[in-house]
Recover the amino acids of this structure.
């Protein structure tokens, strides 16, 4: 599996830029991916895959067959690589990725969006509130435990006058997600760490 990391120093970049991939098993450099910030366009001479950081952009732009598209656009662009997010609203990450791999085969990319989310309990919508780790840590009164389903760390917490769970990723849980993806046969992954998660990695 080839893994691409969003560079922390590029968080404020306004123009499209490329990142080199790394073979997850061998550690060698392999491949190149162009990342396109909101409002920017990819360089026309680039021949590798393209990922729009503004995930709504591919739905509104003419795109080439090398542009990563979300599952919602997969049927409209049958030749394009298709990405799924590591974030879940239910089930398990393994089940999610295995089902996506069955559907998209070698077109599939995993995009890891590190969790820093508070989920009030009960949470029927399955949608959490984005909450910075630095803000949440003082509110958490117990040692973290691990979610086998989501492959992340969890802490009981109270946030905005609600009791619930704070789910967050660490370098270790990101590694576990990448290991799972490689184990089941996903060929490419993008880790969107960036400046917001710089303290974790």
């Amino acid at each position: 599996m080839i893994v691409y990391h969003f560079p922390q120093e590029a968080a404020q970049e306004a123009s499209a830029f490329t990142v080199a991939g790394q073979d997850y098993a061998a550690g060698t450099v392999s491949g190149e991916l162009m990342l396109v910030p909101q409002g920017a366009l990819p360089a026309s001479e680039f021949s590798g895959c393209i990922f729009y950081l503004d995930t709504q952009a591919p739905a509104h732009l003419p795109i080439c067959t090398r542009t990563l598209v979300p599952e919602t656009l997969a049927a409209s662009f049958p030749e394009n690589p298709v990405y799924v997010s590591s974030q879940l609203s239910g089930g398990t990450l393994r089940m999610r990725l295995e089902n996506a791999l069955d559907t998209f085969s070698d077109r599939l990319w995993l995009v890891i969006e590190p969790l820093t989310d508070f989920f009030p309990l009960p949470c029927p919508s399955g949608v959490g509130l984005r909450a910075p780790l630095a803000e949440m840590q003082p509110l958490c009164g117990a040692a973290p435990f691990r979610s086998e389903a989501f492959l992340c760390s969890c802490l009981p917490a109270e946030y905005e006058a609600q009791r619930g769970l704070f789910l967050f990723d660490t370098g270790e849980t990101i590694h576990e997600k990448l290991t799972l993806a490689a184990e089941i046969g996903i060929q490419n992954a993008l880790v969107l760490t960036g400046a917001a998660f710089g303290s974790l990695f």
